[in-house]
Write a structure and sequence with these properties.
By secondary structure, the protein is of the alpha+beta class. The chain has helices at residues 2-17, 48-60, 63-73, 93-103, 113-129, and strands at 23-34, 38-47. Strands 1-2 form a two-stranded antiparallel ribbon. The longest helix is centred in the last third of the chain and has 17 residues, at 113-129.
């Protein structure tokens, strides 16, 4: 529905904002209508701490995959020289903290996560087309 789309878009916007600020307001006027009371508005404040409480169970599910990748590569976290994280969610401070806690090393910050995804997609497209 349109209301769910607006809520998802507002949630995504709040998630992005909370990667750089500590709190944000979500304000969706006329999110629904009640014949008795009229229009309903959604107004709430979201904090980074609340977002982290919500996403930490999902982030923690990544630990077995990291451990398996290390085991498959037959390396230890100490043998990793650099950690480069790519993709939008890697901008979330809780994700960075989690990776650092699991691998014992702070991820590189000089690489734009979204640019790295685009660069990787371009390389893959070149491979598929035979140009690379």
């Amino acid at each position: 529905t349109t209301a769910m789309t607006r809520i998802r878009e507002a949630a995504e916007k709040a998630k992005i904002e909370l990667s750089t600020i500590m709190e944000t307001d979500i304000n969706l006027p006329f999110i629904s209508h009640d014949p008795t009371n009229g229009a309903k508005n959604l107004e709430m404040r979201m904090t980074r701490a609340k977002l982290e409480d919500l996403v930490n169970p999902i982030i923690e599910k990544c630990k077995p995959s990291i451990e398996k990748a290390l085991a498959d590569a037959k390396i230890t976290p100490q043998e990793i020289n650099k950690i480069v994280m790519v993709g939008g969610p890697t901008r979330i401070p809780a994700v960075k903290k989690f990776v650092e806690s699991v691998l014992g090393k702070e991820p590189e910050t000089g690489v734009d996560p979204m640019e790295a995804v685009a660069f990787g997609a371009a390389i893959q497209a070149g491979i598929i087309s035979g140009d690379v």
